[in-house]
Design goal:
Elements lengths: L2 H8 L21 H7 L7 H6 L1 H4 L3 H24 L8 H20 L5 H20 L3 H10 L15 H17 L9 H6 L8 H9 L4 H21 L5 H23 L5 H16 L5 H18 L21
Helix pairs in contact: 2-13, 5-6, 6-11, 6-13, 6-15, 7-8, 8-15, 12-13, 12-14, 13-15
Length: 331
Amino acid sequence: MTKKTIAKTASRKPVGIASLVLATTIRPICEDLAVLADRLAEAPAEAERLAGLRNATPTCTVFIARAAFHDDQLGRFVKMMAKDETLTEERVDTFNALNLLRQSSYLAAALIEPNSDDDRWAKEYIGECLASAAKRQGDPARAALLRTAFGLAPKARKKSSVADVGEMTAWIHETVRRMGLIRPPAADTSADELARAGCYRLEEAPSLEAFFAAAPDLTSLAEEAMDLLAKADTRTQSVGENDRVLEQAAKSALTLAYAAIARVGLWPARTERDLHAKATCRTILRNRVADPASARAVAAMAYDLGNGVAGQSDRFKVEPQHANERFPGQG
């Protein structure tokens, strides 16, 4: 090797993922489906505590903004890996963590009940975007499931009409305002501010990988789901005509149950015990046909996404007996 070659090699700067300056602090990370249960406030009675879920959870716009941020980071990951693939295997769980955070945010947005007109708009907007993307990718089954999950009505053919200039201007201003609500934080925002917003850059790879490694106990989640479903059923049967607290408590218990089931589906199985938990929740989805179609569709989507992750590595266990059942309980 000549001196010129040695000098050129020595001065070569790292490219791709290798060029990242990684954070040294390990931050606690929580996916949005788990955030739902964590936000329940203390109350004198359990029914009141459950009923408070609707006012305690972040808005749909917050969930969607987080999903968009992590989608951008996934795009960065792919572009950087294209420049240097040597660290692909070493950093694959950075990708897995970002993807899980993104999908969990979308699923949480689909699962919760909108609290405002802005929330309703955001939920419908992102649902339409995701369903349209699935259709363009040649997956009409996923597109249909997404429409169900986000509670979207079948598209009606609109009659063309000429809007008044004033109406059009107002519509543009309102659309710009609403798009701002779901705009993700700027990537150059400080790491501390981003963490407070539940957003994590590629530079947080150590934290992201620690989050993905510390998978939840899927068996405990399945048991939690069954307990919440029992509470939802009991409170539904006890609701009187004017008992709004019990009615809302029943709805909240059902929402939290499906959040737990969705987490069981979304996280890849690592043990036989995990597989058993997944099978338990699949049975729940098949049996509870009277539950809201949107909630069941959210859980079915989570299973499909989780199986996609599990199929990429022999570190995870796939459910071979359900290989042909993409969307459990949706057949």
